[in-house]
C-alpha cells in the first residue's frame, strides 16, 4: 500500500479537494489526514471536514490545541506507525509532488536499493505577474502558472523536504529532513514539491503566526519560524503585495504541471542540496 499522511490546519482548506485529486492521480491508495485546530469553534474546523467529505476521504484523527513546532512531526510519525512496512507520501496541504517516474516505480527503486526515504525540494508556485491569487475551484495549476525559488532565495528558509518514506522511518518537524544517509541519492531521483503557499490568504496567515508566537499562545521552539513570517510580510509590503517576477535571484519562470516544465529546476536543486547537508 502507498498511503499519504498530512496535517491539515487553518490555511487554504479549499486546496483539499485539489490535493486529494492530485495524489489519487499519482497512485496514492489511502489518506491519513490529520485535522489540527486551536478550538472547535474556528471556521476551519468544519471547513476541513466538509472539504474532506466532498473529496471522498475521511479524517484520520483530529488534534485540538495550540500549535507547536514539533507537533507536526509527532502527529505524522504516529500515523505512519500504523503500517511501519508500508510507504507514505509526506505532504502538507500546500505541497503537490511531481516525480521523475511513476510513484510505484519510485517505491520499487527504493526497495531494490535499500533506501527508506526520498527527498525533494520546493518549486514555489506564483500567480500571474507575481500576484497572490485566492484558491478557486477548477484546475489549480493554471491559477499559479509561474514557478520560483522564493522560499530558499528570499526567505532563506529550508527548501528540502522528505516526500516519500517507509512508515517505520517517521519524520521530524515539518518533514524537512531526517538524519543519516539511508535516503535515495538525489542524482537518482529527486521530488519536485510544488508549493502553493503564495495565495491571497498568506499575509493573514503570517500575521496570525506572528501574533500567536509573540503572545506566547504557541511555544516557539525554532525562532527562525517567526523570523520567516516577518520577512514574508516585509517583502510583500515593499512589493505592493506581489512577488517581483523580474528579480532574477528568484528564478521565476513559466511552470506547467510536468516534471520537465520548469527550466530553472537544476539551480533550485543545487540550493536544496546545501540544506541536505545541514539536516544530516
Oligomeric assembly:
single chain
**How many domains is the backbone divided into?**
1
* Radius of gyration, CA atoms, in whole angstroms: 18 Å
Percent helix range: 25-40%
| Biggest beta sheet attributes | 10 strands, mixed
Percent strand equals 15-25%
Structure classification: alpha/beta
Q: What is the 3D form?
A: globular
Organism: Virgisporangium aurantiacum
Pfam families: Glyco_tranf_2_4 (PF13704)
Protein name: Glycosyl transferase family 2
Topology of this structure?
Blueprint: E1 2-8, H1 15-26, E2 30-37, H2 43-55, E3 59-64, H3 71-80, E4 87-90, E5 95-98, H4 103-113, E6 117-126, E7 146-148, H5 150-153, E8 160-166, E9 191-195, H6 202-215, H7 223-238, E10 253-254, H8 265-279
Protein name: Glycosyl transferase family 2
Pfam families: Glyco_tranf_2_4 (PF13704)
Description of the molecule:
This is Glycosyl transferase family 2. Pfam families: Glyco_tranf_2_4. It comes from Virgisporangium aurantiacum. 34% of the residues lie in helices and 20% in strands. It has one domain. Strands 1, 2, 3, 4, 5, 6, 7, 8, 9 and 10 form a ten-stranded mixed sheet that branches. With 280 residues, it is α/β, with parallel strands linked by helices. The longest helix has 16 residues.
Structural key phrases:
alpha/beta, single chain, ten-stranded mixed beta sheet, 10 strands, 34% helix, 8 helices, 280 residues, globular, 20% strand
Amino acid at each position: 500500500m502507498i498511503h499519504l499522511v498530512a496535517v491539515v490546519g487553518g490555511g487554504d482548506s479549499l486546496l483539499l479537494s485539489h490535493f486529494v485529486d492530485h495524489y489519487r492521480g499519482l497512485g496514492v491508495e489511502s489518506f491519513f489526514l490529520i485535522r489540527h485546530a486551536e478550538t472547535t469553534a474556528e471556521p476551519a474546523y468544519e471547513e476541513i471536514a466538509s472539504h474532506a467529505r466532498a473529496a471522498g476521504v475521511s479524517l484520520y484523527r483530529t488534534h485540538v490545541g495550540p500549535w507547536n513546532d514539533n507537533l507536526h512531526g509527532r502527529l505524522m510519525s504516529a500515523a505512519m506507525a500504523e503500517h511501519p512496512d508500508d510507504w507514505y507520501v509526506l505532504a502538507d496541504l500546500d505541497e503537490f509532488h511531481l516525480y521523475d517516474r511513476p510513484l510505484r516505480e519510485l517505491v520499487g527503486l527504493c526497495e531494490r536499493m535499500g533506501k527508506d526515504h526520498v527527498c525533494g525540494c520546493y518549486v514555489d508556485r506564483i500567480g500571474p505577474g507575481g500576484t497572490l491569487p485566492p484558491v478557486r475551484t477548477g484546475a489549480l495549476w493554471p491559477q499559479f502558472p509561474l514557478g520560483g525559488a522564493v522560499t530558499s532565495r528570499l526567505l532563506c528558509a529550508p527548501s528540502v523536504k522528505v516526500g516519500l518514506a517507509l512508515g517505520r522511518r517517521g519524520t521530524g518537524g515539518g518533514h524537512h529532513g531526517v538524519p543519516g544517509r539511508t535516503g535515495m541519492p538525489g542524482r537518482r531521483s529527486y521530488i519536485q514539491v510544488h508549493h502553493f503557499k503564495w495565495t491571497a490568504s498568506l499575509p493573514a496567515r503570517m500575521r496570525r503566526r506572528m501574533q500567536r508566537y509573540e503572545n506566547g499562545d504557541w511555544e516557539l521552539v525554532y525562532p527562525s519560524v517567526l523570523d520567516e513570517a516577518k520577512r514574508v510580510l516585509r517583502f510583500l509590503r515593499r512589493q505592493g503585495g506581489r512577488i517581483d517576477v523580474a528579480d532574477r535571484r528568484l528564478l521565476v519562470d513559466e511552470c506547467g504541471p510536468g516534471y520537465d516544465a520548469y527550466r530553472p529546476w537544476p539551480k533550485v536543486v543545487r540550493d536544496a542540496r546545501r540544506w541536505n547537508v545541514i539536516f544530516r
